[in-house]
Design goal:
Strand content: under 5%
Mean pLDDT: 86
Shape: globular
Number of domains: 1
Largest sheet: none
Number of strands: 0
Radius of gyration: 20 Å
CATH class: Mainly Alpha
Distance between the termini: 50 Å
Helix content: over 70%
CATH architecture: Orthogonal Bundle
Order of helices and strands: HHHHHHHHHHHHHHHH
Structural class: mainly alpha
């Protein structure tokens, strides 16, 4: 039987298509948005609920909208730390405001159709997104002495982590089932996001210096920063064990201890091959969020 020979032009087209799809998935913000949906599913399962399509869609839309807004406003700064992403997103710069508005608009319509308390609570992440990405002297306390939240040491990291730590409570409001477990889980989310955002700062050192943004890697250096992040990773693991010990989390949620271990592993790799920082940040680092729901589901099945 003769072998099927694919023309070289067809192979090039297929290869280009695969690259474009991969670039869109990663640089376009879809990986991060799906990760947000995964965390929302994680929280829903801990409440004993099956994550609804509406909940997952809202998590995706709000995350994608916030990501698009932030990336559009920081293209020039990102050109130093991530030129590939900057080149890719520059092609759609004129459409990003419409994309952002559409995501937030559709998300808030779905939220309003769910219940009013949930809708009102979702205004908090919007305010945080605008303050972080846009910022102004009118929006921020003059005491900060900055036009944007991210200009002051750790303020950016705390703001992002705080926004994501609201996910468990928001999921509870969606299901109208708010309990102490969700607030306790919010602390775990905060610690995990803090580690991730500071790690990204290690990649963005050049751009942050040029933009006058003071981050932990700039203030302490990479080695000391990784030491601090190791402590936070250990703290989040210990906190997770504590929540299980006092029966706030079920025993099968022990799988969440894989998240700090995963974080420490890719951070260790970053010290071995600095040239792979974009890969570690944009795929491995952001990919951590996608693991949340998957890990918990596996834990329920196996343990």
């Amino acid at each position: 039987m003769p072998r099927l020979r694919i023309p070289e032009s067809t192979r090039r087209k297929v290869s280009a298509l695969v690259v474009n799809i991969g670039s869109e998935f990663i640089y376009g913000g879809h990986l991060l948005a799906l990760g947000t949906s995964s965390i929302a599913a994680f929280c829903a399962m801990l409440l004993g609920r099956i994550p609804s399509i509406q909940l997952l869609a809202m998590a995706y839309l709000f995350s994608y909208g916030a990501y698009s807004m932030n990336r559009a406003l920081e293209l020039d700064q990102d050109a130093l730390s991530n030129p590939q992403r900057t080149r890719y997103l520059s092609r759609r710069k004129r459409y990003i405001p419409a994309i952002t508005a559409s995501c937030f608009g559709l998300g808030y319509i779905l939220a309003f159709l769910s219940n009013v308390p949930f809708f009102l609570a979702l205004l908090i992440p919007l305010v945080l997104s605008v303050a972080y990405s846009v910022g102004s002297k009118k929006l921020l306390l003059p005491l900060l002495g900055a036009k944007r939240l991210k200009e002051k040491l750790l303020v950016k990291n705390i703001t992002i982590s705080l926004g994501w730590s609201l996910i468990p409570v928001l999921v509870g409001l969606y299901y109208q089932q708010v309990g102490i477990i969700l607030f306790a889980l919010g602390v775990f989310v905060f610690l995990r996001l803090f580690v991730n955002t500071v790690f990204f700062d290690e990649r963005d050192v050049k751009g942050d210096i040029a933009s006058g943004v003071r981050t932990m890697p700039i203030a302490l250096g990479i080695r000391k920063t990784n030491f601090v992040l190791n402590l936070v990773d250990f703290s989040s693991a210990a906190y997770g064990v504590f929540l299980i010990t006092i029966d706030l989390l079920p025993i099968y949620s022990i799988v969440i201890l894989a998240l700090p271990a995963y974080s420490m592993a890719y951070r260790w790799l970053s010290t071995r091959k600095q040239g792979s920082m974009n890969l570690l940040c944009d795929i491995v680092g952001d990919g951590e969020y996608l693991l949340w729901g998957v890990l918990l589901l596996l834990g329920r099945v196996i343990i």
